[in-house]
Amino acid sequence: MLLVITERDSYCYNAIEHIFEVVLTKNIDEIYVLVHPDHGSPLTVSSLIDQLGNIYDSFFQLTSVSKEKLNINVLLYDEKYDPEIASQLWTSVLYTDSVDVFSIPKAYIEHVDKNKIHSISTSTIECTIEKHRKYRLSNPESTYESIPVVAVGGTFDHLHDGHKILLTVSAFLTGRRLIVGVTGPGLLGNKKYVEYMESFEIRVRNVNSFVKIIKPGLFPDIYEINDVCGPTAQVESIDALVVSLESYKGAEFVNNKRRELGWKPLDVYTIGVLGGNEETFNHKMSSTDYRKAEYLRDHADRV
């Protein structure tokens, strides 16, 4: 299913919650969300992070309670979206009543049967819109494809919504090249439930597949990370680094290393954790939880 909402919907937690409650009544296992712009001004990275945080966090909270096993992907709004990919991903469309259905780019919906395109009401929902929370952003007004070369890194094990936010922001910012560092096996020995860690090849495949969904024309360069800096100390031309709040100190280490090399420091864009406390990181969404769940499933007779 493709779910088309407005920027107002994405900023309004009550509206998002109502929308997902409706979606959860549908017989689907994959949701693709498109945030339709309300006006002509360009979307900034700070606004994008607000949207992604609200959407993914609301979905996370609802599905944690309902125990629904649904997958969600928030797309980047781009009229050049590949219609062939769209036809492979969804066959139905749900849009909020504040969206002009005729303004949705044809690439997203031209393959969908008209009987499978429906609206949902959110215009009567009252809410206080909170935007632009404090982020550690080098330039919160950065817009789509405003930075030539962007890097992001992580284990990307059991690719979850927190990973998706990191990759989406990185894809949004880069105008030419996206470098993704994926942690190699040598650095994973101390991870909890490491025996349930996905292989390097699977994690790379999942990163590539997700980037293809959100920005089909972008082909990330994948590097295996075997030290703290990874590609940020190998590729001088990198301009910016996207990290989670939990990894912010690592970005400082990277920039100190680049200064030692005589290279320019990187602009740093920091994303808050999903589903947890941003000071202690308790209860945040984590790959460890997915590995633990697999462990408990395999050892259920011993618990």
UniProtKB/TrEMBL annotation:
One GO MF term attached to the UniProt entry: dephospho-CoA kinase activity
Name of protein: Cytidyltransferase-like domain-containing protein
UniProt domain Cytidyltransferase-like: residue ranges: 152-292
GO biological process, one term: coenzyme A biosynthetic process
PANTHER family noted in UniProt: BIFUNCTIONAL COENZYME A SYNTHASE-RELATED, DEPHOSPHO-COA KINASE-RELATED
NCBIfam families listed in its UniProt record: PRK00777.1 (NF001985)
InterPro entries (alphabetical): Cyt_trans-like, Rossmann-like_a/b/a_fold
